[in-house]
Amino acid sequence: MRTLYLITARGGSKGIPGKNIRPFLGKPLICHAIDNARDAGACDADILVSTDSEEIRKVAEDYGLTVPFMRPEHLATDTASSYDVIIDCLHRLSALGHDYDRVVLLQPTSPLRTADDILRAEALWRPDIDMVVSVCPAKTNPYYGAFETDADGLLHISKGDGRYTRRQDAPEVWEYNGAVYVMTVASLLRGPMSGFRRVVPSVMPSERSVDLDTPLDWEIAEHIAKHSL
To answer: Is the pLDDT of residue 125 over 70?
Structure first.
């Protein structure tokens, strides 16, 4: 079984300009994802940085990786999906003689992710499932604290009959934290992740589930990293 460790790093970022090569704890953000893959046992030949940016490419290559091709322009827009990027990479690698059984997607925007998080997710993967995905406890529980409006504009509980009076009594719910995706290539070739039905959660703690989308997220992640890691 062969695993591709895919690091997606688009050049454009509106929330945090240049974030993928901005220093996080003293080194470019993307280098933390590369370290994660290496520390999880990946050889450099199986780590691929997908980017449209020559600056990001240079940072990755200065860090010891080969970036064999650039991401096409139509996959470097705000509307391009991760799925299309993954499929493009798989097809290009296959044309170069490199075929894979599974893809571990590591987004640079999860700098508090560890190699152990990757290894735990990989240990849960089986060929008969579509994906293992990292999750954390959801910030809002739809059985307890999330509400919708009805046709009259009145609030009602999102899920269930509203009988839970304590959050801790409600069923556990999870949210994707964006840190680790272990995907079966055969499933990807059948269609997008939105169609995956056999998905296994790999739980990560909330304090390591910060996804960098805004400058405040960056400050929070650096504070956590400096004081708890």
So the answer is: yes
